[in-house]
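JOB MANIFEST
job_type = single_chain_structure
chain_count = 1
residues = 137
[input]
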Amino acid sequence: MAALGIAIVYFIYAVLGSYMLYWIARFFEAATFAAKRGCLIRSSIGAILFTCFAGNNYRNQQSAETGKVGVYQLSAYPGCSSCLLELKPDNYYEVRQGQMIKERGPWRYESGGDYWIVYLNKDDQLGTGKYHYQNYR
């Protein structure tokens, strides 16, 4: 079902982009000022709708990413049964044991409909391997 949702989003981008490009092409073909003005208005409407749709998708992605910020209690970190992983809003994480920082690096969020993944460093994932966690706050 997630693939269908992503396909629908790309379809909407394609329709809005095609609409905008069609009226831009018609603008250059138009002979009179009134016809050019009508084409320009229609292509502007397409550009506005395209920008609004893209902006809404970006805000939804940022909101979902912000929801993952917090402190995770790691259960499989090597040599540390009480380590905490903190995802910070500036897209950096820290693994702490008390006041000591054991690890620090960048993180990024990825989603696709019915899944989400937080990547730590380049390839590690939150919730698997040494970054398996029990509690989140």
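[summary]
The mean pLDDT is 88.
The longest helix spans residues 33-66.
exit_status = 0
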